Structures are given as structure tokens and as C-alpha cells.
Amino acid sequence: MPKPKKPPRWYFSLRSPYSWFAYLDLTERYPDVADGMDWIPFWEPDAVTQRMLDEADVELPIVAMSRAKNFYILQDLSRISKARSLKMTVPIDKDPNWEVSHLAYLAAQEEGHGRRFIELTYRARWQEGRDITRPETMGEIAVELGLPAERLANASDDPGLRKRGLDCLVQSYQDGLFGVPFFIYGREKFWGADRLTPFVAAFRGQPLEEVEKGWQHHDELPRFSAPGGDTGHAGGCG
What we know:
Largest sheet: 4 strands, mixed
Mean pLDDT: 91
Distance between the termini: 34 Å
Strand content: 5-15%
CATH architecture of the domain at 9-95 and 162-212: 3-Layer(aba) Sandwich
Strand order of the largest sheet: 2-1-3-4
Helix content: 40-55%
Order of helices and strands: EHHEHHHHHHHEEHH
Number of strands: 4
CATH superfamily of the domain at 9-95 and 162-212: Glutaredoxin
């Protein structure tokens, strides 16, 4: 497969449990792929960022999640976490501002700690039950990273980071994102945690069967399962 003109990339959300599952597999199973692509955050914008998106004539594909789907995802997360022997919490997000954590990621990235920030933030949200929409939580993670607490706690107040965040969301729109995790290799797009192996195959130029040899014990994500991804806002479990 020819090398794409644009770098391979994946869109992740710190809100999304399916992005967390994909993150675990990327970093633990396919570190060469994780190291060879762009990491781009995606989130539901607050009122300030939404005005900026409106001015740019960008409409993100964010839809309200039905009650039935919300309950389904709770069951799905229970199945997947048990199959992977993960102790998982599912927090309830009340009026969350996702700029707080996602712009904090961009700040940590500028300091050379982007990947470690993601690790700590996913752990805080999905295993420790901490509220990653609170600036105080971002300050605590900053200290763990050896950074001044205010560097991450106040990230959403930084105009420069706001502009970088806007650029990420505009790029997601231009790339045709409609849910996370979302992987792109050239013109090929892959949505969902269970589409990671086809993406890895495209990235490496390997037959899919070779990539899947070490995947089959993940029975909770069979090759032709329904996509393990998020297509909209789901409160505490999307």
C-alpha cells in the first residue's frame, strides 16, 4: 500500500470509554503504530468554542443519545471490562465542560507530556472515578507530570489553546469524523475500537490475518462485531 500524503492519525476522546479501550490496545499491542501517527483530541464544545465553530461554518456530528442506547452501552462496558480484567468505573457527568481536560491535553502536549497525560487522565476517569471536567483534577494531574498545577488547570482560559482546540475540531470535520475512536490511513477510515486491527494492517502494509493472530483472545471484540465506538454525547458512559 502506498504511503499516504497526510500522516496516519486517530481521533480520541477522553470522555469515551471506547477510545480508552483503543488507547490500551494501541499502546500495549501496537506501539509502533501509536508512535507513527498523529493523536488528535475530539470533544463536545462549550459555548465559547461553539461560537467559534459557528463562525467557521462547521457543524460537528454530535447528537443526543437515546435512553435505550445509554443502557446498552452500560451493559457493553461491563462485558468488555470483565473480559479484559479491567476494574472500571462509569462516572456520571453533570453539566461537564470537556474543554477543561482536552485543552489541558494540548497544554501537556506542548510540554512534552501528551501521552503520559492521556494515560493519567484515562486512569483518573475510568478506574479512579475522578471528575476530569474539574480544573482541580487537571491541576492534580499536572503535579503528577511535574508541571505547575495552573498550567493544566487553567488551560481552558488560554486563548492560544482555544485556537489549537478549534483547529482540532475543524480538522475532524474536514476528515469526516462522525464518532470516536476514528482512525485514518490515506483515504481509508476506520471507526470503532474493534476496527483497530484493520487500521493496523493498513498502517503496516500487512495482511489483516497476520495482525489478528495476536488478537483472537479478545473475544469481546470479534472481527465482525458491531462497531465499538461513540457517535454522540452519552452523559456518563459515552
